Amino acid sequence: MNVKFEWWQKTTVYQIYPRSFKDSTGDGIGDLRGVIEKLDYLVELGIETIWFNPFYPSPQEDHGYDITNFVDVDPVYGTLADFDELLTKAHERGLKIILDMVLNHTSDKHPWFLESRSSRDNPKREWYIWREGRGKNGKKPPNNWKAMTGGCAWRYDETTEQWYYFHFLPFQPDLNMRNPEVKEAMFDACRFWLDRGVDGFRLDIFHATFVDAEFRDNPRCWTLLPGETHNRAFFQEHVYDLHRPENFEFAIELRKLIDEYSPPRFLVGEIQGTMDQLRRYYGPNNNGLNTVFIFPFSSIPMNPKKIHALVSEIENLLPPPYTPTYVYSNHDRMRMIYRFSNDPAKAKVMATLQLTLRGVPYIYYGEEIGMPQVKFSLRKSQDPVARKYWWMPITQSKRFGFSLTRDGCRTPMQWSADPNAGFSPDPEVKTWLKISKTYPKINVEIQETDPNSLLNFYRRLLKVRRDNIALQEGTLQLEPPSKTHLLYFRVHPDQTLAIILNFSKKQLVLPAPISTPSLIFSTHPKSQILLQYENSGDILLEPFECVILK
Ligand code: GLC
Question: Pocket residues for ligand 1 (CB within 6 Å)?
Answer without folding.
Answer: 62, 65, 102, 168, 204-205, 270, 331-332
